[in-house]
Amino acid sequence: MTSKPENILTSQTPDNDWYRKRLMVAVWFIIPVFAVLLLRLFYLQIIEGDTFRKLSENNCIRLQTIDPPRGLIFDRNGILLVDNRPSYDLGLVVRDASPLDITVQNLSSILMLPENEIMELIHAKNHKHHSPYNATLIQSNIGRNTLAYLESNRYSLPGIVVDVRLRRQYVYPHLASHVLGYIGEINSGELKGEAFADYRPGDVVGKFGVERSFEVILKGQRGGRQIEVNSSGRLVNVLSTVTSVPGQNIYLSIDKSLQEKAETLLSDATGALVAMNPNTGHILALASSPTFDQNAFIDGMSQEEWDGMIKNPMRPLLNKAIQGEYPPASTYKIICAIAGLEDGVIDERTTFFCPGHLKYGNREYRCWKKGGHGTVNITDAIAESCDVFFYQTGLKLGVDRLAFYAKAFGLGSRTGIQLDGEAGGLVPTTLWKKRKTGVLWQGGETLSVAIGQGYNLVTPLQMAVVMSAIANGGFLVTPLIVNRIENADGEVVDAVQPVMRGRIPLKTKTMQLVQKGLWEVVNGNAGTARIAKINGIDISGKTGTAQVFSRKSGSVEKEDARAQHLKSHAWFVAYAPSASPQLVVSVIVEHGEHGSSAAAPIASELIETYLHTVVR
Questions:
Q1: Domain 61-252 sits in which CATH superfamily?
Q2: Could you tell me the pTM of the whole model?
Q3: Which of 328, 441, 543, 583 could form a disulfide with 595 if both were Cys (CB 3.0 to 4.6 A apart)?
Q4: Mean pLDDT of the chain
């Protein structure tokens, strides 16, 4: 009988038993290892998956913008007024700053800023318009010592970035502040506007003056670079770069030395001054007092500082030269005289007797000279500023004919100067009053309008335009604040040409009579601005005293007894030299009381400076 072969797999030989025991030991060792690996994968992918996903996203390629250098601003002679200088700005990329609270705590101790202020900056800037990979500006212009400390401690400050940016610098603080304006960070309201479609949070824009009006010219075109960063947000490699294009440079019509003189002359007053070439419209000086330091706006003001500025009763942020609206007072008598002569209600032989008042209805309308001027003609009336003469002329004309000539000289509308925010003033008419108040025009109101009171409102710039038309023979000029625009290579992009808005068709005789009267104002024996006379320079001009409140008949209150804010504004408008005018000056001193004493000396000294010093 043959025996069955033995199954070696099931045989219980000593060798098989040893191998099986070894295999079981290996299985029991491998299972825990795989269990640990599975648990670790579960922890990394599920529990900590979001954290590591963000780190992975950060370890990538980013696009970084390169801000263009903002265009520079010069005066007419090439003197630099607004520059750019390097600034070290500290920012924080929140996505890279982990743990954020520790980073903020460290920054707080370095910058000496409260932690809550830093967190407020972070929360304020990180809204839906702000990319999480863009740095939030924590502090501008940190200084070299702080920069060195930050660089040496970078690894304990994840997420911090230090950018070298060009910081705006107004070379002469306070000088021409209302012309140059200032810049500031774009706000949420501006970001929503079409004009700022290509701007981003954190960008700076012009807020006022030339900086605002010529924002498109000055801003340039942003560039960018493609960079590779690691998981800490630190730069590893620059992959490609698109160079930014600098903004274009602006050369103003302003003469720095004359601007300085104008602001010095106004330094103790609240008011405005405009100095303009009557033949081209180029503004040589435009001052508004008080001024402000444009550099204070670069990093932003505290709420307390801002409130102090906007609540200042002298209104330092108002460009009074183009935004201040005042009754023109007796400077308006130029318009009344021209209207009367052109419409034929008066001529060079017409005289009126001035006893110091005019009886109209049941009221007496007084002349500024209590004892009266006696019998005066048109040139006498202009020279001596006789109210009664112009009361009579105004009554013969009516308010609507006065308005016709006022508008012909550009009053009641903006002059077109290249600055935003210009006011248009007001030229009243019978229709205007009916629509505005629902009440008919009264004859007595025409008397007030004829001498520049009542509803009349003008800006100092508008009166400079009126005076320019008298000086240049009747041409209405457009005021220009910019001479030319150049690119960064010095090539002229735009040479701004003078703009004439047309000629006012006045009779030669009318112009001659008015010009003679204006010359007599300064040079005549009875002229109201004899104080402005300069040896060797013929000046023609007109004074004005604009009442802040209405003087009732029979009032005996003295001017110097009133509160300062109720005192009259002082006007003086002039051109020189009389025979071949090169400069027109318009000055108003708020609450200066009398044009002859407060405004005329300012204009006179500026004219002398220009003709003897500035003009070669």
A1: Penicillin-binding protein 2a (Domain 2) (3.90.1310.10)
A2: 0.83
A3: 543
A4: 87
